[in-house]
Design a protein that fits this description.
Order of helices and strands: EEEEEEEEEEEEEEEEEEEEEEEEHEE
Helix content: under 10%
Low-confidence stretches: none
Radius of gyration: 19 Å
Shape: globular
CATH architecture of the largest domain: Distorted Sandwich
Number of domains: 2
Strand order of the largest sheet: 9-10-11-12-26-22-21-15
Amino acid sequence: MEFSWNGLKTVVMENDVIRIEILADKGTDIVEFLYKPRDLDFMWRSPVPMYNRTPFIETVAGKSGNFLDYYPGGWQEIFPNGGSCCEYKNAMLGVHGEVALIPWNFKVLEDTQEKVSIIFSVRTYRTPFILEKTITLEKGSPRVDIEEKVTNTAEEEMDFMWGHHPAFGKPFISPAAIIRVKGATMRVVPGDSKSFSELKQGTTRWPMAEGKSGKPVDMSVCPSENDRVSDMIFLSDLQEGRYDIYNEELKTGFFMEFPLSVFRYLWFWRVAKGSFNYPWYGRTYNIALEPFSSLPLLSEAVKRNDQLKLDAGKSIGVTLKAGVTEG
């Protein structure tokens, strides 16, 4: 089903178990992931309003880019840069790259009682890539299957970063929500002057971080809404390309599976009314667990040899799965 949300072309895909709402005119953001048996939407909605706008928004405007001015929450595709603005091959790339701000084309591949499948595609404009994404729902299944392919259309080798940015909010997120990751190294990085953290900087093993009070902090337990914390944490050396978030009170969870050969890191962003000034002003409560190819900034990833690469004319493909668990 296709309709318009504040002037943005929007696609709804659903079966008898789940419904997802996709902003085709803005990056294929998944702004709703609803589990029908419990009427539970896992996605977080940002306090930033999504006003009527032109579909195309450039990646960089001002020192912080345009991403946060047009961030509705939910789940974004991040490509070909992750993190703050940077310069790569004379191109200025904004916060989280190009594709999350611009319209994608789409075509229905199958629409039957047994299966719904749609292919979305986009061509980047400051870098020479084509990104294709096929999302499929099958009857009775509580998950989506996502098949993606990146193609380098340049006549030279290209570097890039690739990530997925799903953010989760209330009522799914609460202190009853437990994050399950199978083995990882955890690195706490410094925040900025507008954020508050209870954690010491440094590297430990998941899930225990070192608290500033001297007590360990279990990062697998989501903070409460008014804990006044804001942290950015990077998980590496993952033993499995999967995570689960399970709410023990709701008896419902969300999982994501991803190939470790491409998405070698999990970026863990958690905010419990502890981030002030622009853009959150102390208002937000959410977590995000983000499979990423690299640590932040494409320009820095190239220096670390931490980036993905494609030769001229070559492609790379991945498969992801995300959905609901119960019991």
